[in-house]
Amino acid sequence: MRTKGLLIASAVLALLAGAVWWSNRHPKTEDGEKTASPKLLELKQDDITRIEIVRSGTETTRVEKGADGVWRITSPEPLPGDKDAISSLVSSAASVNADKVVEEKPEDLAIFGLKEPRTRVVITLKDGKTRTLLLGDDAPVGGGGYAQVDGDPKVYLLTSWVKGGLDKLAVDLRDKRILTFDRDKIVRVELARKAGTIEFSKNAQGSWVISRPQMYRADGWSVDDYIRRLQDLKLDPLLTSDQKTDLEKQFKGGEAVVSVSVADAAGVQKLELRKNKDRYYARSSAVDGFHLIQEFDAKALDKGLEDFRNKKLFDFGFDDPSKIEYRGEKRQLSLTKSGEKWLDGLKPVDPVGVQTLIDRLRELSAASFPESGFAPPVIEVTVNAKSAEKVLISKSGGKYIARREGEPALYELPASSVEELEKAAADVKEAPQEKKK
Questions:
Q1: Cβ(280)–Cβ(257) under 8 Å?
Q2: Torsion angle, CA of 66/67/70/75, rounded to 10 degrees?
Q3: Radius of gyration, alpha carbons of the chain
Q4: Among 348, 324, 342, CA closest to 334
Q5: CA dist., res. 170 & res. 62, Å (int)
Q6: pTM of the entire structure?
Q7: pLDDT digits (tens, 9 = 90+) for 125-144
Q8: Domains along the chain?
Q9: What's the rounded Cα separation, in Å, for the pair 265 and 183?
Q10: DSSP 3-state of 79
Q11: pLDDT tens digits, residue range 398-413?
């Protein structure tokens, strides 16, 4: 019992200490209102044209907005900028709030590290005027650091996240992508491998299709995922000159795995991936140098044709069909949706059975893609949703081979999925008659 009482007392004491801490950090005025956080800077983001982060005894990081509105790193060397990282920096510089005022009129700035500040953040506006924020030492307790703003003698305490949002190096702001294409404007992707070349392109509807080695339906999700993986490849910005030299050596001595070309509105970018012993190395046409690629990412880029083919027999997906024509050896159906009801010819049918049939059609998926084996069809299905799709299913021995009308590709279907489809068609029944009241 004594132990339990001590635990309760400790919890109450912790709550009281937390309340005192919160109260001290957020004091109230005489009328009980909380005081607002002190504001050091309040600027319009669109007015900012340059931010210079000057560090004592080390590099100066400078980002500038060009006439085209694009932010670029201009110091310590010209580098492409990370759009999101620089946007965050500009946002942080435009509105700087302090946690509290530490000293109104400090007698000695040295004790705060502000007599000779470690970092100066100089913000240039489009009218040519500048505002300067001085960042001093870290606070001894509670995190954060001391700061001053030009024209104001006060010493402020910035929280660690506010200070961190301003105190950036070029490495934090540079674009680390190995390929810099615009994902929304890609028109073609090509994979050159030992097994052959695969090419994807967009059709008139804006969907991905496989255009080489011949026209096939593509699994759009797989193509998009491949592009995302390409875009997510990142370089290591902290390599030494010796490490860069070694990467070049390893790449040139490696065996080719795949060469990927991506074409967007701005042109073509190329990535060459090679394997040397048990490691993967890459070279990009978009950025200088050679890069170490993680095994997981490398294997995700070394894909074959079947990895991208659309295995689904129907494209209607989750669109609701309006008409289904089913012709099998055991059952023929001509289903039309009328309002909320389904009709087989003129007879109402149970919508639950029709939904099961639709589900089985959606699930039809290839186990493999044979080159031959299609025989006279035993099942013909036409589904009307956004467009009409007709599928023919044949049986040869114990195998079911299907094809879509108007397309050369063949799909081998698991026998179980065809048997489930036939059962679902057989189970479509007339709707029970409504009882008269």
A1: yes
A2: 0
A3: 33
A4: 324
A5: 8
A6: 0.78
A7: 999 999 999 999 999 887 89
A8: 39-173 (2.60.40), 183-307 (no CATH), 323-426 (3.30.1490)
A9: 10
A10: strand
A11: 899 999 999 999 999 9
